[in-house]
UniProtKB/TrEMBL annotation:
Protein name (database record): histidine kinase
InterPro entries reported in the protein's UniProt record: HATPase_C_sf (IPR036890), Sensor_HK_TwoCompSys (IPR050482), Sig_transdc_His_kin_sub3_dim/P (IPR011712)
EC number: 2.7.13.3
Keywords: ATP-binding, Coiled coil, Kinase, Membrane, Nucleotide-binding, Phosphoprotein, Transferase, Transmembrane, Transmembrane helix, Two-component regulatory system
Domain of life: Bacteria
EC top class, as a word: transferase
One Pfam family named in its UniProt record: HisKA_3
Molecular function GO labels: ATP binding; phosphorelay sensor kinase activity; protein dimerization activity
Coiled-coil ranges per UniProt: 168-206
Amino acid sequence: MTTTGEDHVTARGGPWWWERRRSAVFDGGLALVSALECGLEGVPFAREAGIPAAAGIVFGVLAGSVLLVRRQWPIAVVLVAIAVTPASMGFLLGIVGLYSLAASDLPRRIIGSLAGMQMVGVLIVMFVRMRQDIAKEDVDVGDWIVPFASITTALGVTAPPLLLGLYVGARRRLMESLRERADSLERELQLLAERAEERAEWARSEERTRIAREMHDVVAHRVSLMVVHAAALQAVARKDPEKAVRNAALVGDMGRQALTELREMLGVLRSGGDGVRRRERASVPLAAVGVAAAAAASRAVDGAGGPGEGPSLSEIDELVGQSAAAGMVVDLSVVGESRAYAPEVEATAYRVVQEALTNVHKHAAGAKTYVRLAHRVSEIAMQVENEPPPEAASSAGLPSGGNGLVGMKERVSALGGVFVSGPTDAGGFRVSAVIPAS
């Protein structure tokens, strides 16, 4: 049985056109037996033809040796078998040659034509030989005996090897087709495995990015307000003890809120890790588990209300009030009729305003800030713009990782919105976002 592709190249270990050495040895043995048979049958042929016996033997040996090339040139073998049929030689040559022809990949019409020629040749030779033998022996037989015996012999010599060769050839082609399909399936499975690994890596990367973004949203705003209140507390501790007490209480509240949100998120991550281990034991794909854990972490971080409940636009007033309590002059204006949006839309709008106010605390302490919300027919727009900070104002000294604007843009873009940020002509800074309502 032949092989294909790389296996075909690897399997070739025999000389010339043979794929294996044992195939070459087998064909060599057949050719040797056929040469001996034809050589022996060449003696009576030489006697009848009136030529030296040696010439008949050489002719028979050469004709029988053609069987050596039956795999490479089966047509030549069958033609030689047809040619030596009148000489009453090449019985093995004809049978094996016809089998090799039928088992090859040649068109069926060629196989049928050559098989028909060989059958007709055997039929004619048998008919003539039997008539001559009957006439020579002067035997009285029925007229139907010679045609019947000739037809039976011709069919017996040609039909079995032809049918066997066709069966073996069809089975070989079927096995090659199945092998090619198996190789193709193996390559596809390998490609799918590589893509699954890429998707799993992408999911893990997206999960890490999302968790980092949520951590930034939770920590940055609360801690920024705590730093601002701590600075105010330091400034008024001796001059206005009552205000210092209020600022200290605000710092404590902010710290407790930050710790509560961090505890909730870390709790979800721990439970998500247990879920991952349980699902791995249940043979669930890691990428799907990672995405589910990230989604659960996001729901927990976005708010404490419950699954699917996050910060909403109704909490914008409280958010602005916290910044005002920290000493920022904030002007909030709302245009249009307020209505409910999808939870992810409201959470994203809230986070954009929150991060923009956090950036004002970090980089423009003391600057007046304008927060504008616009409820439109099919979208919601928000803008946070601050004036240049007063010259006398000191920096809050808050570190910045440079990821706040990137995170806001990613959030808005994920919902199909538009995000723009940059300095204003007056020297301040503006953050604008438009998010589709659905």
